Amino acid sequence: MLAEGKLSKQHREEKRREDKNEAQMTDFDAILINTMVIRQIHRDKVGISIAAEDGRHGIIRAWALVERKEGDRQIEEAEAVKMAMSKATEEGWHSIIIASKYKKAQRESQQEE
């Protein structure tokens, strides 16, 4: 009876390790998609960049878009996430993680002053 108890405990420990390793592999296989919205201050331009990377090869795809009209920050960010989801669907990626950033940038001439 004691031997069976030890075996069961070992079996449970191995199962726990296997489950943990499987969860880590799933995270590793997910594609990380970074979106960034950059709005130029005092201009009507908004840039959206999307970069997809995996845990093995780094950046595997990238897209960029410049819009002429400035809008609401939350809407611009939502558009970037929507574009990232569309690109992921086009690429056939099923396991994705999306990280979104928003940045205000000054014109180069103002930064030098």
From TrEMBL:
<feature type="region of interest" description="Disordered">
    <location>
        <begin position="1"/>
        <end position="25"/>
    </location>
</feature>
<feature type="compositionally biased region" description="Basic and acidic residues">
    <location>
        <begin position="1"/>
        <end position="22"/>
    </location>
</feature>
<protein>
    <recommendedName>
        <fullName>RNase H type-1 domain-containing protein</fullName>
    </recommendedName>
</protein>
